[in-house]
Amino acid sequence: MAARSLCRLARLLDPHPKTFGGKIRQLWRALQLEWHLSKREILILYLNRAPFGGTLQGIGAASWAYLGKIACEFKLFRGGNAGGFAASSSRLRPDRWPERAEAARNKVLERMAVQGVWSREQVKESREEPIWLAPRQMPQLAPLFSRMMLGKSKSDKIVTTLDAGLQRRLEELAQNWKGRLPPRSSLAMIVVDHTDMRVRGWVGSVDLNDDSRFSHVDMVNAIRSPGSVLKPFVYGLALDEGLIHPASLLQDVPRRTR
């Protein structure tokens, strides 16, 4: 791996001040990476953390924002795109500087052809592809739940019990109900599997992008008075004990039962 990219990775993993001492620390971190990791491992670390313009970090976010697909679905030319963008993310952003980005991509493709990584036919096909696709919204499945989990764990990989299909249906249901809610109101839903008490679905607010509904507040975790939430459990216990039946009429007055 090029020394420049190795030093960039060292800076991303261990930020330091732009001083002489900071530069020495960066070089030391780079040497540690070279000693303990393979070239492939270093490259994976770099691509998953490198800036790709704006607020985009990592090749996964960049591939979705610029090309509309996750990184593992890249065609050949898109690998050339990624290599070009990573070299100078701000100066080569395809949404702002398409000519620069195309020139950088073609330079990477030509180098790969010279080194025999790709054939001339593959390079020619890749040059004909557009440099980027129309922008699209980044996927935001269970955003408030994800934010909570990221705050609890420092691990690079977090495994949860959410059901992705169920989560999408819950978020669609929340969007369908949004128009029926009063102004400045939101909603929350949580689905728990009663067999193992694991959380399968989590909707903390009606729409994360609607600030008028305070949607960055996770209402699942919000402290509130239980109110009517307890009624089904109280009524269920009363039914089990034979104190009431489904047709019972209860007076709304204080009552003490021994």
UniProtKB/TrEMBL annotation:
Molecular function in Gene Ontology: carboxypeptidase activity; peptidoglycan glycosyltransferase activity
Keyword check for 4Fe-4S: no
One Pfam entry name: Transgly
InterPro entries found in the cross-reference section: Beta-lactam/transpept-like, Glyco_trans_51, Glycosyltr_51/Transpeptidase, Lysozyme-like_dom_sf, PBP_transglycosylase
Keywords attached to this entry: Carboxypeptidase, Glycosyltransferase, Hydrolase, Multifunctional enzyme, Protease, Transferase
Catalytic activity: [GlcNAc-(1->4)-Mur2Ac(oyl-L-Ala-gamma-D-Glu-L-Lys-D-Ala-D-Ala)](n)-di-trans,octa-cis-undecaprenyl diphosphate + beta-D-GlcNAc-(1->4)-Mur2Ac(oyl-L-Ala-gamma-D-Glu-L-Lys-D-Ala-D-Ala)-di-trans,octa-cis-undecaprenyl diphosphate = [GlcNAc-(1->4)-Mur2Ac(oyl-L-Ala-gamma-D-Glu-L-Lys-D-Ala-D-Ala)](n+1)-di-trans,octa-cis-undecaprenyl diphosphate + di-trans,octa-cis-undecaprenyl diphosphate + H(+)
GO biological process: peptidoglycan biosynthetic process; proteolysis
Enzyme category, top tier: transferase
EC number(s) from the headed UniProt entry: 2.4.99.28
Recorded metabolic or biological pathway in which this protein acts: Cell wall biogenesis; peptidoglycan biosynthesis
Any GO CC annotation of this UniProt entry: outer membrane-bounded periplasmic space
Keyword Transferase: yes
Domain Glycosyl transferase family: 14-112
Protein name stated in the entry: peptidoglycan glycosyltransferase
Source organism of the structure: Escherichia coli
Gene that encodes the chain: pbpC_2
